[in-house]
């Protein structure tokens, strides 16, 4: 009997965490976070709810990491703080993890693995990593050999016939397993709705070479800092074009430094880079900038250039390349960023204008179909995607010949039971989302999020009242100060204060003696007075001072 339990990543992009359990032992594949959508105020990251893992900590024998993206490794430090277990990953992935752990002061047992070299996890799992092509080096999927049969977890992958590093997705191994019989295939669904072939990174390489060739000013390339294959090519082009490179953005600097330390950028030397201040003094045709901020993040490198902050000022003759598509929900912010850059006089190229400047790292529908045809699993579970992605991937599986009883549309928390080659739903476990800042200084509950949203929408009024301690008579106030109010509402505050004072004077002496009740009645009085003039309900913070 085998259980597969998704704790995140099914129904959303991010939070990837998949438990495989058998005979009293568990392993976890990936431990990712998710970045909050626009409007989630004061939240830096979202983590999976790991209650189930904490409750079964003695059963968890190891964590397998597919690759170094935040949505697959970002929650790891927070889990290891509570459940310390061995962590398995490839060299580059562990390099990414090591930095995150050091940043948060977390120690871990990190164990480096190699594709196609099986290793045991616990007494009942034999695990084998399989090479896959993605946007980050050293990405793998996993074959978990269990007493019920092998389970293939693809990780994030695409089928690139000519990847930058020459390491293609190991379809041969998956095909061998398909011939032997695969109990279940868990496969990346991100691009399940795209009917065209996912492009090769070589297309981006060729497009960059064409675009950069005749630029007379500065070249600025903005992309995700984890896309080391693309960064490597940009650095090689800069050297060929005799341009010095400026890196803008902490994650960009950190990832390039780490990749060099691990030997993934062998042709890159210190002499290629210059500090930002020095680049401002170089002729524009000698400068190439690698910047974070392709999603219009306010503090990222590209946003600084668009705002004209810092010593490097963009202008006519400069080329800005946004080598990433806008994440759903970010379209308006990215559009505004492009407009800012255009006002600076720079030429701006983005995927809608020049599709060849970006290709996805995820398999599209025809590539997903090829994997299904090759593996021919007894059971199929689409993973890593929102519900519409999972639905479309199931349709592709049906088109490849799988029958409805072989298809399992799971969501976070579902308990999938596999026995004698068949899979079925057999219950659920607790899952959810934990909102907090990046350094774990406190959880933000849904109630707090709701209150923050209300403050943002309606504003806030601080009401201060002074009462004589002995007689409980009103000495002064309420004095009102507002934040986030419109101009008309600010003008109303003196009248609201007068009416609130009248309402408060109706309170009995007994109630005034109870500090908590006095604050509650003050807040009610202000809200009641405000209601006389406007339908808005600002948040009221009452302060009662006794002297």
Jot down its keywords.
single chain, 547 residues, alpha/beta, 8-stranded mixed sheet, 6-stranded mixed sheet, 17 helices, globular
Low-pLDDT parts are none
Rg over CA atoms, rounded to whole Å, is 28 Å
Assembly of the depicted chains? single chain
- Structural class of the secondary structure composition? alpha/beta
Average pLDDT works out at: 90
Q: Characterize the biggest β-sheet.
A: 8 strands, mixed
What general outline do the C-alpha atoms trace? globular
How big a fraction of the residues is strand?
A: 15-25%
Helix tally equals 17
Percent of residues in helices: 25-40%
Number of strands: 25
Question: Mind explaining what this structure looks like?
Answer:
The protein is an alpha/beta fold and 547 residues long. The chain is 32% helix and 24% strand. The strands form 5 sheets. Strands 7-6-5-3-2-1-19-20 form an 8-stranded mixed beta sheet. Strands 8-9-10-11-12-18 form a 6-stranded mixed beta sheet. A 5-stranded parallel beta sheet has the order 14-15-13-16-17, sandwiched between helices. The longest helix has 19 residues. The protein is globular, with a radius of gyration of 28 Å. The N and C termini lie far apart (71 Å).
């Amino acid at each position: 009997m085998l259980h597969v339990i998704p704790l995140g990543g099914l129904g959303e992009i991010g939070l990837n965490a998949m438990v495989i359990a058998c005979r009293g032992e568990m392993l976890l594949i990936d431990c990712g976070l998710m970045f909050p959508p626009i409007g989630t105020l004061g939240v830096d990251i979202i983590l999976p709810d790991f209650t189930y893992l904490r409750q079964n900590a003695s059963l968890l024998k190891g964590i397998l990491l597919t690759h170094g993206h935040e949505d697959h490794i970002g929650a790891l430090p927070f889990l290891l703080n509570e459940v310390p277990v061995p962590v398995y990953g490839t060299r580059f992935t562990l390099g990414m993890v090591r930095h995150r752990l050091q940043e948060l002061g977390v120690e871990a047992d990190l164990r480096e693995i190699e594709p196609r070299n099986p290793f045991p996890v616990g007494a009942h799992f034999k695990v084998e990593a399989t090479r896959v092509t993605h946007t980050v080096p050293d990405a793998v999927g996993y074959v978990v050999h269990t007493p019920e049969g092998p389970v293939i977890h693809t990780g994030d992958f695409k089928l690139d016939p000519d990847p930058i590093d020459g390491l293609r997705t190991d379809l041969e191994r998956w095909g061998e397993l398909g011939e032997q019989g695969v109990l279940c295939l868990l496969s990346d669904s991100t691009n399940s709705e795209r009917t065209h072939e996912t492009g090769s990174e070589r297309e981006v390489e060729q497009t960059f070479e064409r675009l950069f060739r005749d630029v007379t000013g500065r070249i600025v390339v903005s992309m995700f800092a984890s896309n080391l294959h693309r960064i490597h090519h940009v650095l090689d082009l800069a050297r060929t074009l005799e341009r010095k490179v400026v890196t803008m953005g902490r994650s960009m600097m950190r990832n390039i430094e780490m990749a060099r330390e691990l030997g993934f950028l062998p042709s890159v030397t210190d002499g290629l880079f210059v500090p930002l201040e020095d680049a401002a003094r170089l002729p524009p045709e000698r400068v190439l900038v690698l910047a974070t901020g392709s999603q219009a993040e306010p503090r990222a490198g590209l946003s600084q250039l668009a705002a004209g902050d810092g010593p490097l000022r963009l202008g006519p003759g400069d080329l800005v390349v946004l080598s990433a598509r806008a994440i759903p929900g970010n379209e308006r912010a990215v559009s505004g960023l492009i407009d800012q850059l255009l006002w600076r006089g720079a030429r701006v190229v983005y995927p809608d204008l020049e599709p060849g400047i970006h290709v996805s790292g995820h398999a599209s529908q025809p590539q997903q179909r090829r994997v299904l045809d090759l593996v021919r699993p007894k059971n199929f579970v689409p993973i890593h995607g929102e519900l519409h992605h999972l639905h479309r991937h199931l349709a592709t599986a049906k088109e490849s010949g799988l029958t409805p009883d072989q298809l399992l549309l799971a969501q976070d928390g579902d308990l999938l039971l596999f026995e004698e080659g068949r899979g079925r739903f057999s219950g659920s476990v607790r899952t959810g989302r934990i909102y907090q800042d990046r350094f774990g200084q406190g959880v933000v509950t849904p109630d707090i999020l709701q209150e923050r949203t209300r403050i943002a929408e309606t504003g806030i009024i601080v009401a201060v009242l002074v009462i004589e301690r002995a007689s409980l008579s009103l000495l002064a106030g309420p004095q009102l100060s507002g934040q986030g109010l419109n101009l008309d509402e600010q003008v109303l505050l003196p009248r609201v204060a007068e009416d609130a004072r009248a309402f408060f004077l109706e309170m009995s002496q007994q109630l005034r003696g109870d500090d908590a009740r006095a604050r509650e009645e003050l807040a009610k009085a202000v809200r009641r007075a405000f209601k006389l003039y406007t339908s808005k309900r600002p948040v009221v913070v009452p302060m009662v001072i006794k002297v």
